[in-house]
Amino acid sequence: MIKKKKLALILGIVFGIVLLDQVFLHFWLSQPDTNFKRSLDIDDVRQLIQAGKDARVTTILFDPVILEAWHSNSDVAVPGVCIFLCHVIGPLTFAVTAAQLRDKPFFLSRLAQLGFTITLFDTSDGKRSHVFLFRHGSPLHLTVLDVNSAAGYLRQYALTGPPHNMAQVKQYITKDAWDQIKVDRAYERLTTKDVKIDGVDLTVPSDISTFVNDYRDAHFIPCNESRATYYNLKHMKSETPDEIRFKHKAWKLLGKAKTILDQLKVPFWLSSGTLLGFYRQCDIIPWAMDVDIGIFIEDYTMRIIPEFEKRGLRLTHKFGRLSDSLELSFKEENIKLDIFFFYTEGATVWNGGTQAKTGKKFKYIFPTFSLCWTEFLDLKARIPCQTEEYIRANYGPSWFTPVRQWDWKSSPPNVIENGVWPEAQWSDVIVVKE
């Protein structure tokens, strides 16, 4: 009886391994690029980790597919069997910080001593961005993370370089992985922990679920400094003391709103005039007199109002309701923060507006968009990835030309009338506290 139970257990383990292998194999075969080597030599991984220890460089396993698979099946382990690391799709990715790579050059020389062929990639301004290591199996990939201490995030620069080097590594990378490393990316600062995967001692993010979600939404779009310089040379005059004070207060208000919404885990993005200022001049528009952000209605929580008021932001307006045209306005030091809530409707999204005196409703229609990260005045914030399309919808083709007179009910090219709130509902949908 005992022998039968042992046999059943062994068969179950073997079946599980085979099933897991088939899942990975099916995923690999479904990729559009299949010229790369699939096999990874586990000893290459061990040698990379050892080189890091020798040079006192922390190499973090940074591969979301492998981390997610292991995290979901961490109890699956068979001595002598490589289950996770040996089923890599494209190169296995690790991360190192730019500071460690710069300050400890022995790391790369040690890798060369261990038999790795090293291909380095730098940005146009000389910052190291990616390293590929070729040895026995498929290559290992080191993504170099630049620590932004002011805004508190990790920056990964896009892979760029000589065409022959790009062609060399592309053959080992799936289309999805190639798309990921061909754009700038940003991640939250992370802590790490030591684990054992397939018998190899590795360092991984402490919260793997959070890391995987962060990785999926990490696309970063930097502010275009050249465009901002051109705009300032063409249009900007000396700012008045009042305008300078406004910009400083608006920046503080945006930072406070970010802190609160981040704590509530409510994603938001720069919208309207605040987004225009970022995109056009990498700054706050000095005569805007308010701060504008957007939130998808699905991310609304009733905790927003009490948390904002607890931090000294006074609710001045509440228009609409959760199902239709919700809008909140807060004030701090006479600077207004408008929170526009966006609704999805077919191939468009829209936010509402309400005229307090008449109850008239308005709708501002935008093409659908996804969200990317940027850095705005030392704040890591989201923006629509399709930034210019969003701005053109809101401000028209002449968005680059400054306009000081703006009527929120008629000036935007994407505004349409959307009916009238019945007077019987005004006490609920038109709340003015000023």
Description:
The chain has 14 helices and 20 strands. It is an alpha+beta fold and 434 residues long. The protein folds into two domains: 32-216, Beta Polymerase, domain 2, CATH 3.30.460; 225-432, no CATH class. Strands 10, 11, 12, 13, 14, 15, 16, 19 and 20 form a nine-stranded mixed beta sheet that branches. Strand 4 and strand 5 (140-148) form a beta hairpin. Helix 11 packs across helix 13. Residues 1-7 and 17-37 have low confidence and may be disordered.
SSE layout and pairings?
Elements: H1 2-29, H2 42-55, E1 60-61, H3 64-72, E2 92-97, H4 98-103, H5 106-113, E3 117-122, E4 128-134, E5 140-148, E6 153-156, H6 163-170, H7 175-181, E7 185-188, E8 192-197, E9 200-205, H8 208-216, H9 225-234, H10 241-263, E10 269-270, H11 272-281, E11 290-296, H12 304-310, E12 314-321, E13 324-332, E14 335-345, E15 348-354, E16 360-367, E17 371-376, E18 379-384, H13 387-395, E19 415-420, H14 426-429, E20 430-432
Parallel strand pairs: 2-5, 11-14
Antiparallel strand pairs: 1-2, 3-4, 4-5, 5-6, 6-7, 8-9, 10-11, 12-13, 12-20, 13-14, 14-15, 15-16, 16-19, 17-18
Helix pairs in contact: 2-5, 3-8, 11-13
**Main β-sheet, in a few words?**
9 strands, mixed
Number of strands: 20
Kindly estimate the percentage of residues that lie in beta strands according to DSSP: 25-35%
- The CA-CA distance between the termini, in Å, is 81 Å
Count of domains:
2
Radius of gyration over all CA atoms, rounded: 26 Å
Integer average pLDDT: 89
The secondary structure category is: alpha+beta
Low-confidence stretches: 1-7, 17-37
- Measured as a percent range, the helix fraction is 25-40%
What general outline do the C-alpha atoms trace?
A: elongated
The DSSP helix count reads 14
